[in-house]
Design goal:
The structure is a homodimer of 127-residue chains. Chain A is 68% helix and 0% strand. Chain A has a domain of 86 residues: Orthogonal Bundle (Multidrug-efflux Transporter Regulator, Chain: A, Domain 2). Chain A is built from five helices and no strands. The longest helix of chain A is centred in the last third of the chain and has 42 residues. Chain A is elongated, with a radius of gyration of 22 Å. The model of chain A has no long low-confidence stretch (mean pLDDT 95). The first copy, chain A, has 127 residues and is mainly alpha-helical. At the A-B interface, helix 3 and helix 5 of A face helix 3 and helix 5 of B. Chain B binds a DNA duplex (30 and 30 nucleotides) through helix 2.
DNA sequence: GATTGACCTGGAGCGCACTCCAGGAGTGAG
DNA sequence: CTCACTCCTGGAGTGCGCTCCAGGTCAATC
């Protein structure tokens, strides 16, 4: 019997078994995960690699619906690489935009932190 | 009559009037926003400045409940600056952690993008 | 052969952060 | 006076991404 059980796969991927079933039901995977004779899922390397990729897309904020579109493109086979690239590039641009935004807001928070550090330095924890 | 109406304040802050009412009801503000004689909110500079700050906290991913805790500390007045600083520093550390995580996942996505760019360069849009 | 434990399914429920709505009131223009 | 507009309130509804549950199957262990 080859492949990992759902709980082993979940542990390895840093997800829960529920999430893995949810991704499969929601068409985020490239194929239905193969089953053992008793009907239990057995995750193979190809499944794990794909889930690892979409986990990265999710971790960078790509919505489920876009992951699904990307999966559909890959499932459709060769010939739509231009579309796949466009989708990934659009995502990349959005991530960079968000990173810049967060960094600029963080700078203002840093300033506030500096302010509190300063007043605590000059008047440390008054009795 | 001094101060901005809720829709003017919303426009200036990049939020909606609904969100401003929601923040107030949810104890994210330092005080109940003052009202005109007819009961309409009139946002003063102090209100706008505070909302601007918490918008930055929100934009960097601080949950509403933590913003509420921070607001409560500020509302409580002088003497808890150590706690305020700790809260902001914890948030800062979390933001930096997330930035690093997103950047590392983005690097993998970039790699994938490079892959597609490469195959499209060597076999551009086959008829 | 009874129990235990991991897995299965369909579907309900949840936490978050808004967002929308109904019903009502004050204000200014024509 | 009527109309249009903006605001008010309390509360319901929404979208997202899971997360949990009931009821059931199957394989291995005692």
């Amino acid at each position: 019997m080859t492949g990992l059980t759902i709980s082993d796969a979940a542990a390895r991927l840093g997800l829960t078994a529920d999430t893995l079933r949810y991704y499969e039901k929601d068409d985020l995977l490239l194929r239905a995960v193969p089953r053992s004779s008793s009907g239990h899922r057995r995750y193979e390397q190809a499944d794990l690699s794909w889930i690892e990729l979409i986990t990265r897309l999710r971790a960078t904020g790509m919505p489920i619906r876009d992951v699904r579109r990307y999966a559909a493109l890959v499932r459709a086979g060769d010939g739509n690489e231009t579309e796949r690239l466009a989708l990934l590039q659009a995502h990349r641009a959005e991530v960079l935009r968000q990173l810049a935004e967060v960094q600029s807001h963080l700078a203002a928070v840093d300033y506030k932190i500096g302010f509190y550090e300063e007043i605590l330095r000059s008047a440390p924890v008054p009795a």
